[in-house]
Sequence to fold (424 residues):
Amino acid sequence: MLDLKFIRDNKDIVKEAIKNRGYKLDIDELIKLDEEHRKILSEAEELRSQRNKANDEVAAILKAKGNPKEIIAKMKPISQKIADFEAKVEELSQKIDKIKYIIPNIPDKSLPVGGPENNKIVKSWGKTPNFEFKPKTHVELAEMLGIICFGIAAKITGSNFILYKGLGARLERALINFMLDLHTKKHGYTEIFPPFLVNRRSMTGTGQLPKLEDDMYRLKDEDLFLIPTAEVPVTNIHAGDTLEESDLPIRYTAYSACFRREAGSYGKDTRGLVRVHQFDKVELVKFTKPETSFDELEKLLLDAEEVLQLLELPYRVVMLATGDISFAAAKCYDIELYAAGVDAYLEVSSCSCFTDFQARRANIRYRDKATKKTLFVHTLNGSGVALPRLVVAIMENYQNKDGSVRIPKALIPYMDGLEVIKPK
Fold:
């Protein structure tokens, strides 16, 4: 959430940012409402001052055993006017919040301007595999190996859900443990196991609501949401808190199942694991001081990249353009894995710096050691990494001609020494 004073003082910057993101919002209407809101607050404060003065006079008259009837009579219309002003203030506050909560973050100046076509590849790692045979897709391999049952998942729940079986389930668990061990033991993150249901306040704090409510799964009888990512509960660990500067940076990692309706994506990449409604992910979340947040973003990106380097999977890093970053992000890198069977790069991680956008919404502050002032932290998060497309890349890049799939060396200890998954 942007500060209203910042919007008033930097109207043109905000308008330009909204334009570069491809949004259409009436900032002038917000400023007009804010001016009216502040004017009425000032008038109401003046009337309250008059009322307080009159109350003191009434108290003095009563103490002198006099009759304050005349003063009380004069104050009745003022009291009514104060009540009217308070109602108007509440009405304006709701209108302001309605606009304020749908204004996206300001993109960092380093980002290319435009839509997805302007995204910039900033790094590539590893070599794409070269097969002497036509590589199969993960859907074909899954059927040969008997490790992922898409039809059974559809029978149990519906389309675009997954049921891992046997060594498929073992592979999923191995990847989760491998990533959590890496991030906690080497990268210094504290492991969290969060709830998978959160309230509306938490979803609003991280920016999923109100804009993305149609993409979320919500409980009908309770105002609770299945999490789209562990970013939501983990960031909200410190909602309403004032941290000490010496505590920063704070680094958390968390495994969670993630749930997304993908309301606007029906018919797009629907086969197999590429686009599903429930998936596993290991998330990285940071709380930092403002002056170090973009440096911490680069470190977070490296932490996510190391997962793929250890698994020896080719990938590229893409800096997203202003029109392609998420609503709350100021800067974002996507990591895209190459998958040989579909011959495409698939996004497996988004690493973002949100500056103080989420912290303002969730009221997360820290106490500056030198000035003792409380300031908003900067928040960051990244997938470290999401599993469905990671499994796609492992299966398709590590496949053999007979349909068997080799296990990446770094993962073999997590598979109890198993080196190859063979067709059933």
